[in-house]
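Changelog excerpt

This revision adds worked examples to the README so contributors can see how folded entries look when concatenated. The first example is reproduced verbatim below.
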Amino acid sequence: MATNSSARGRDGGRGIGRDVGRSVGRGIGRDVGHKPIEPNEPNQPIEPNQPKQRPTHPAARLALLIRNYPHRNPVTFAYLLAVCTGLLVLSRLLPGHTADHLKIAISTNPHNLAHRPVLVLLASPLFAATDSGLISHLLIIGGGVGVCMAALERRFGAVRTMALFLLANAIATVVATSVAAAAIHSGRYPARWWDGYDYGISYGVLAIAAAVTPLVPKRLRWLWAVAVFAYPFASADWFGLLPNFATIGHETAAAFGLAASFHLVRLSPARLSPAHPSPAHPSPAHISRRDAA
């Protein structure tokens, strides 16, 4: 059994307006909308409402972004809390042997996927790997989820973003695990991978990173896409011409995320066109899954 694992691991709320300018009761009416002007009181000019000025200092702007983040990205913020909580539970709160049993229970290895597929497909992307370093966690959780997922949520909406994440994770897992099962039976993959550790958030995160491609400045899109697709091969293990199954899963997730994002762009082109901004709604690495060896 493998003993190492790694992470795979709107604004637009509508206010309720009320007209409180005049209150008229039965038999008794009173106008509460205007202050009566005294005869000797000069008329005061009415100044138009001035728009709030955005802070210009970088620290102030960062503080404003952090303060508004939960409101602008509610689903991403909730998922960030869930992933961070899961990481804390696995790495700090549970005893070692209990944490190991939980990791095996949520792993999407061939054994678990054959016996309880729905449970592991839903539970696995809630837990980032505990053996990744701080920089890895910052890039995967902070960059992949906190930045890329939030950008998709603001552009395409929370439902479409989470649907993309979950579908990519499920499809990539099924493809990668099917390859793993066949390769294990043929002797190309180690037999211990059959029921070993295989959990994390990186399949979904890589799909999200690829889905951000249409939102990247046009001149940099191809570089971004190449980087997303090339990254899994940086740490791939090879068995002849066959890479480890996690690499296959990552490539599958990235392809799905990229294709889905351009489909979403066609569904909502106006939201992505900088040439026609809406006055009411102005336009605003290191990703790993697990070491299967």
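The second example, added in the same revision:
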Amino acid sequence: MRERRSHPEAGTAPGGARGPTAAVDAGPPAQAERSRRNSIRSAFDRAAASYDEAAHVQREICARLARFAAAHGLHTTAPAGAPLLDAGCGTGFGLEALAQRSPDAPRIALDLAPSMLHQARRRHAALHPAGAAPAPGAAPAPGGALPAPGGADPLLALCGDLEHLPLASASVGLVWSSLAMQWCEPTRTLAECARVLAAGGLALVATLGPRTLWELRAAFALIDDARHTIDFQPQAHWLAAAQHAGLAVEASDSAEVHACAPDLRGLLQDIKRIGATTVDGGRRRQPLGRAAWSRLQAAYERHRRPDGRLPATYDVILLALRKPTHPRP
């Protein structure tokens, strides 16, 4: 990053704008929200080709979510054959965690950004080449299926919004979502999870809490009053949203994971390379000057670790949410 260029803003992985064929029409979004969703889509579309090279923390958190589910013995009790949904699939490494959990279950990849979805399909095709048995029940569904390329094991790929899922009610056995829901309003997105889950279905969620990128916010606070990250909601807010949606909390956990780089420029470039550049209003409009960049570097330098690297904190929230077999009275 040259000193006269704008710095990358901060956030973390795709959630999404409304897809083309949402099952529930909640009315047209406000112009500001539509613009925000379009910005998120564009940022992750641009980052699709570079995402995997920079997404070290994202892969680690995806693996943590899988270990969290295994440690608690969490499984869906939805009817056999119900598909597994990766909501906000990015480039698709969460799909393999789902394949390991339930090798014979059909899988659905959903993401806001078409280019991310394309990368997920390429990954799936490479791991499940032509000749593999087709996933049961993976026929095209309303919302637009994108078959895996090259005759590979079929994957239902949908471009859509976590807050307006283009899926029928009670149609999914498991919702997996790793580092996507922080881009969404918790009450709306968990209500959609509850809607599409079949009775007994399970939602496994990794999202981010308010200490995420706190070092970056603290350093920028010495430079300006602008916003440099999205708002990250605390665990209590997510638990309340789950309860409001009628989902039972079976397990929850939290942990801090750190991205590291030799210098601040490297940290910011990695954030940009994964596409996490959308900020909710109040962002800085002017490029950082040379003096401001020097002050920012000096402020962040106080966080340098004994191993010589600079960290960026990810405040990880893990949730296991169950849709009850009997609705609340």
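Reviewer comment on example two: Residues 2 and 265 are 9 Å apart (CA to CA). Confidence is low (pLDDT under 50) at residues 1-28, 131-152.
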